[in-house]
């Protein structure tokens, strides 16, 4: 069921198993029948660790969503709250518990499970509300890094970027460091740590400190990872702003992937045979899980979208040829063999049908004029054309009131590609936005400025061209079908973050000292001593394994670029990716927006 | 004679190099009692108090074992070890006359506790080491006890004690310096406790005790060092109750990490405090933002909201953020106008953006007022034109649109007119504007209104291959074959040249 987690070089099933074990142990502490009250945000990430069946095996009979007021009736012995440690949630829990006592229902035991960490602050709040004593078990469930795929871990911490870079609240970095400690407990101490950025430095410091806090626990596991690379998102603000052009990236840009699931418009997924019968159109969106457990998806997810069509048609031919085989099957043995392959073939056929439908949906959008115009402007900015003046297309989009987030992405992209905008240009954009979309967005604009996404050009020098040239961020001759460089993921732009990883592996960061100095935050290297006997002796031709941790989020296109590097024949390094959150430009900008709503009259 | 006794004799004879040894041994072996004999010797040794006697019994057992094939060694080894422990505590300086059976009954843990209670730490540690007890159960525990005792020695200075403890304990796993520190604090030695806490690597353990000792500032430092924000919050809220407001703010001032966390806390829990914090920092930008916030969230009446915005304007000016100040002034002006519009026209206008307000006015045919707003707020021409034709098209006021298009030269060209007409399915109107677009946009305009023939002509006239292909791609075989043919001919011709 979680086979895709063990498909990579590092078997991440062990991490999932550890998570499941911890969960089971907690559930068994609360003997008897149970109901779980969920902090709604947690259900998605939890689904990747344990399905309902596991909970059921441990006598979980009911599940509710945490909300104010009285708890729904349930004939169970235990009520367990699964929550993030947030004060507003504590108030709701207190309300639940207090209103419970008034009803003369059979006495139920209360427990609370903090995810990922117990919090003194929250317990104090429960105490102030007079309910702390009502809880028999108050524990924590350290769900920090959740395995998403064979090479992908995410904390799914929605607001990590905003907290770190806007509010100077480093809670999520603490969790990240804890998550890395858990990872090291399972996969061995990572001997080398590299990093770039203030947050990266902070995480590395905490890791080193935490290691000291566990004396005696000398890790005796043979290290799986050779290197950890910690990268601040604000070192590369550009990549998430640009439109991702890989298959998976586009699915995320257009429909949004959440905890590996995507919801799609149902029209394209009608069963072919009865489609005509005048049946009611399904109104429920089609929900699909996307991960490398699906053979076809694993093959096409990281390709440039323009290269997906040919793979799909090739697959279609192979599959129909395979089904044709049945006519050639003559002997009983041959028929038997054919039948035994049938389930696999049918799965392949339905997978192909799904992805053909998705590709059609995406194609409708990517072939639209507006998508093309938008992309053209993005690419002009990234290759350094006319970044210093007001852009016509952006202006026209504002005048036609295109979605605000699209505008913000474009303006921020221009600002980043120009190391900030001139006062006149910046003010013009801001004024246009406020007049068109409303004054209430003034705080959003301020947030973008604080995060450095939108800024005033202070020095007269624009650094971006230097960075672009040294790091070869713009490639004119990009090959989308058979790529030879990571720039294929954005059809020309090579993500800066991934270039940093690539150059670290070969020839090393010393070659780009100058650029590293321009990029924000310190860069550093730390070594963690391994006990003798655990030092790796590498076999000839065996690849190194690097864990790249993006603090503040990573896009699917960047992941695709790293996977491309892993697969390069002479690459020498394979990558596992970890992040605080899987992001795209839209949900990233959204997380930075200030929601001011006018009071109702 | 018991086989054990006989074995003892045999061993004695053996040492005397007498052949009787062999005789005795045979006697035991013949009865198949050798292992029983060994067992008896080992057991007997346990009941003896004289080391010499113990030794000779054990030697006999050892001797007997030589003639046995598979005698399990554990009992012998265990007895040797236990006897050594017992001999040690039987020593007159220690004086614990436990019998072997008593000792077994008590268990080693209890014995160690008794030694600890008698402060016989070195002996206890030696025993642990000798018996190879795990550090956690053994040495660490005893060292911790020792340290807890040590802190009560009032005759030594804090430095001396702390140093002595650290010298002995070092980084021994399982040692909790915070426990020792807590003991020191209980004995009234706060300074010593603080010194000891310095050796505690786990901040989570340091902080609560430091708070208990009212060393909140230090606790704050430690909490920040740990990176655990929850710990920082705990200390900050503790400080808040402990200190007066001024001192509290001053303390935060020195700790940016704590300050930002507290700000976050206030944002959700105590808005007024947040304002005070910004005030103290003279952070006018944030104060401005704060007022904007409250204009939306805490004020309901227009006057109240305007007043809040006015405060924001003042702060933005102080922050030298001219843009924000001007934008806010504009918003005040807009709110007032919207209120007037609302009263005059009996329609909701308040809180629409400027764009939407003007759009709404045009939609209702209030062109004059719309025009007024457009001038008053210096909306760029281009944007106003986009906006106006959009609204007019939605209103299907084609006449007004045509009039507007002729009012002066369009700053956005005429292609948007074509597009917007087609969007509202008015091909007739669209054609009018298609004729007026610039030559570069002509092909696109003709395609939009469905005049492929003219589009083809324009493309051929431009000798533009891309445009020709574009037209070609729109041609369907059934209806537009003549157009397609025309283009293909032109393309072929241009190829020849």
TrEMBL record, chain A:
Membrane topology: Peripheral membrane protein
Gene Ontology CC: autophagosome; clathrin-coated vesicle; early endosome; late endosome membrane; lysosomal membrane
Name assigned to this protein: Vacuolar protein sorting-associated protein 33A
Keyword Membrane in record: yes
GO terms (BP aspect): protein transport; vesicle-mediated transport
Role, per record: Plays a role in vesicle-mediated protein trafficking to lysosomal compartments including the endocytic membrane transport and autophagic pathways. Believed to act as a core component of the putative HOPS and CORVET endosomal tethering complexes which are proposed to be involved in the Rab5-to-Rab7 endosome conversion probably implicating MON1A/B, and via binding SNAREs and SNARE complexes to mediate tethering and docking events during SNARE-mediated membrane fusion.
Superkingdom assignment: Eukaryota
Annotated SUPFAM superfamilies: Sec1/munc18-like (SM) proteins (SSF56815)
Organism: Chelydra serpentina (Snapping turtle)
Family to which this protein belongs: Belongs to the STXBP/unc-18/SEC1 family.
Localization (cell): Cytoplasmic vesicle, Autophagosome; Cytoplasmic vesicle, Clathrin-coated vesicle; Early endosome; Late endosome membrane
Automatic annotation (TrEMBL), chain B:
One Pfam family here: Vps16_N
Keywords, alphabetical: Coiled coil
Coiled coil found in the keyword field: yes
Ranges of residues in domain Vps16 C-terminal: 175-493
Bilayer topology annotation: Peripheral membrane protein
Domain Vps16 N-terminal: 1-78
Main location: membrane
GO molecular function annotations of the record: actin binding
A Gene Ontology cellular-component term: lysosomal membrane
Record Gene3D superfamilies: Vps16, C-terminal region
Coiled coil residues, start to end: 7-34
Record carries keyword Magnesium: no
Subcellular location: Lysosome membrane
Gene Ontology BP annotations: endosomal transport; intracellular protein transport; vacuole fusion, non-autophagic
Family, similarity comment: Belongs to the VPS16 family.
Subunit annotation: Core component of at least two putative endosomal tethering complexes, the homotypic fusion and vacuole protein sorting (HOPS) complex and the class C core vacuole/endosome tethering (CORVET) complex. Their common core is composed of the class C Vps proteins VPS11, VPS16, VPS18 and VPS33A, which in HOPS further associates with VPS39 and VPS41 and in CORVET with VPS8 and TGFBRAP1. Interacts with RAB5C. Interacts with STX17, MON1B. Associates with adapter protein complex 3 (AP-3) and clathrin:AP-3 complexes.
Listed name of the protein: Vacuolar protein sorting-associated protein 16 homolog
Organism: Chelydra serpentina
């Amino acid at each position: 069921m979680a086979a895709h987690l063990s498909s990579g070089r590092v078997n991440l099933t062990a991490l999932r198993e550890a998570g499941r074990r911890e969960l089971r142990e907690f559930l068994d502490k609360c003997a008897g029948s149970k109901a779980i009250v969920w902090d709604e945000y947690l259900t998605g990430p939890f689904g990747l660790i344990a399905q309902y069946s596991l909970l059921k095996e441990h006598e979980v009979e009911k599940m509710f969503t945490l909300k104010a007021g009285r708890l729904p009736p349930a004939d169970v012995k235990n009520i367990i709250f699964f929550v993030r440690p947030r004060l507003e949630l504590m108030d709701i829990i207190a309300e639940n518990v207090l209103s419970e006592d008034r009803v003369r229902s059979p006495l139920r035991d209360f427990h609370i499970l903090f995810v990922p960490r117990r919090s003194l602050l929250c317990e104090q709040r429960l105490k102030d509300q007079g309910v702390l004593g009502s809880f028999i078990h108050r524990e924590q469930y350290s769900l920090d890094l959740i395995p998403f795929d064979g090479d992908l871990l995410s904390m799914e911490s929605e607001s990590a970027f905003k907290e770190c870079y806007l509010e100077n609240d480093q809670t999520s970095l603490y969790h990240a460091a804890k998550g890395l400690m858990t990872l090291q407990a399972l996969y061995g101490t990572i001997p080398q740590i590299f990093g770039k950025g203030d947050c990266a430095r902070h995480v590395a410091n905490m890791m080193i400190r935490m290691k000291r806090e566990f004396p005696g626990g000398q890790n005796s596991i043979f290290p799986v990872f050779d290197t950890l690379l910690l990268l601040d998102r604000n070192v590369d603000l550009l990549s998430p702003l640009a439109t991702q052009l890989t298959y998976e990236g586009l699915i995320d840009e257009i429909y949004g992937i959440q905890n590996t699931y995507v919801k799609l418009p149902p029209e394209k997924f009608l069963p072919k045979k009865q489609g005509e019968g005048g049946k009611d159109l399904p109104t429920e969106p089609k929900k699909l899980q996307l991960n490398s457990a699906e053979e076809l998806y694993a093959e096409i997810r990281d390709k440039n979208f323009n290269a997906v069509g040919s793979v799909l048609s090739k697959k279609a031919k192979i599959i129909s040829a395979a089904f044709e085989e049945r006519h050639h099957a003559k002997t009983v043995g041959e028929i038997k063999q054919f039948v035994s392959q049938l389930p696999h073939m049918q799965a392949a056929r339905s997978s192909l049908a799904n992805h053909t439908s998705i590709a059609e949906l995406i194609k409708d959008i990517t072939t639209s004029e507006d998508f093309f115009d938008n992309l053209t402007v993005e690419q002009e900015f990234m290759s350094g054309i006319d970044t210093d003046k007001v852009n016509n297309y952006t202006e026209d989009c504002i005048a036609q009131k295109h979605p605000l987030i699209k505008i913000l992405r474009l303006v921020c992209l221009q600002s980043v590609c120009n190391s900030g905008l001139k006062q006149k240009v910046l003010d013009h954009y801001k004024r246009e936005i406020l007049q068109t979309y409303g004054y209430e967005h003034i705080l959003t604009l301020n947030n973008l400025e604080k995060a450095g996404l939108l800024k005033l050009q202070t020095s007269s020098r624009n650094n971006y061209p230097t960075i672009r040239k040294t790091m070869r961020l713009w490639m004119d001759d990009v090959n989308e079908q058979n790529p030879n460089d990571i720039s294929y993921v954005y059809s020309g732009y090579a993500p800066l973050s991934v270039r940093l990883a690539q150059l670290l592996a070969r020839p090393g960061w010393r070659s780009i000292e100058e650029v590293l100095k321009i990029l924000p935050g310190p860069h550093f290297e730390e070594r963690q001593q391994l006990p003798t006997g655990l030092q790796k002796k590498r076999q000839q031709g065996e690849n190194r394994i690097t864990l790249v941790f993006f603090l503040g989020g990573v896009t699917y296109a960047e992941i695709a670029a790293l996977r491309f590097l892993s697969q390069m024949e002479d690459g020498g390094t394979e990558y596992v990716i970890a992040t605080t959150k899987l992001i795209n430009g839209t949900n990233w900008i959204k997380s930075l927006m200030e929601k001011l709503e006018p009071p109702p009259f | 004679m018991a086989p054990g006794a006989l074995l003892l004799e045999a061993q004695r004879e053996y040492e005397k190099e007498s052949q009787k040894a062999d005789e005795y041994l045979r006697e035991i072996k013949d009865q198949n009692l050798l292992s029983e004999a060994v067992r008896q010797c080992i057991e007997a040794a346990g009941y003896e108090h004289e080391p010499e006697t113990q030794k000779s019994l054990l030697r006999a057992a050892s001797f007997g074992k030589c003639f046995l094939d598979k005698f399990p060694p554990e009992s012998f080894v265990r007895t040797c070890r236990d006897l050594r422990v017992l001999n040690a505590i039987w020593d007159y300086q220690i004086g614990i006359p436990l019998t072997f059976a008593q000792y077994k009954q008590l268990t080693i843990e209890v014995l160690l506790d008794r030694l600890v209670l008698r402060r016989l730490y070195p002996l206890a540690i030696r025993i642990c080491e000798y018996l190879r007890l795990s550090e956690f159960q053994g040495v660490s525990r005893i060292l911790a006890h020792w340290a807890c005792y040590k802190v009560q020695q009032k005759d030594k200075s804090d430095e001396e004690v702390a140093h002595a403890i650290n010298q002995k304990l070092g980084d021994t796993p399982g040692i909790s310096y915070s426990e020792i520190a807590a003991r020191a604090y209980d004995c009234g030695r706060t300074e010593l406790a603080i010194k000891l806490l310095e050796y505690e690597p786990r901040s989570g353990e340091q902080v609560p005790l430091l708070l208990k000792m009212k060393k909140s500032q230090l606790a704050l430092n430690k909490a920040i060092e740990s990176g655990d924000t929850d710990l920082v919050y705990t200390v900050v809220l503790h400080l808040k109750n402990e200190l007066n407001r001024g001192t509290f703010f001053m303390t935060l001032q020195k700790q940016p990490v704590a300050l930002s966390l507290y700000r976050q806390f206030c944002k959700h829990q105590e808005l007024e405090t947040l304002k005070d914090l910004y005030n103290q920092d003279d952070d006018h930008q944030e104060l401005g933002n704060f007022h904007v916030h409250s204009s939306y969230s805490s004020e309901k009446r227009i006057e109240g909201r305007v007043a809040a915005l006015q405060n924001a304007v003042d702060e933005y000016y102080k922050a030298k953020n001219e843009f924000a100040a001007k934008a806010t002034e504009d918003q005040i002006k807009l709110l007032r106008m919207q209120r007037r519009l609302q009263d005059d026209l009996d329609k909701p206008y308040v809180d629409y953006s400027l764009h939407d307000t003007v759009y709404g006015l045009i939609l209702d045919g209030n062109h004059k007022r719309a025009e007024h707003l457009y001038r008053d707020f210096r909306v760029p021409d281009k944007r106003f034109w986009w906006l106006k034709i959009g609204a007019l098209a939605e209103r299907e006021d084609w006449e007004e649109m045509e009039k507007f298009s002729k009012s002066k030269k369009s700053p956005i060209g005429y292609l948007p007119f074509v597009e917007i007409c087609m969007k509202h399915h008015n091909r007739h109107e669209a054609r009018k504007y298609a004729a007026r677009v610039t030559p570069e946009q002509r092909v696109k305009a003709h395609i939009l209104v469905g005049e492929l023939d003219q589009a083809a002509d324009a493309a051929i006239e431009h000798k533009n291959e891309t445009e020709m292909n574009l037209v070609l791609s729109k041609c369907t075989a059934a209806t537009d074959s003549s157009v397609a043919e025309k283009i293909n001919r032109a393309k072929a011709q241009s190829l020849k040249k």
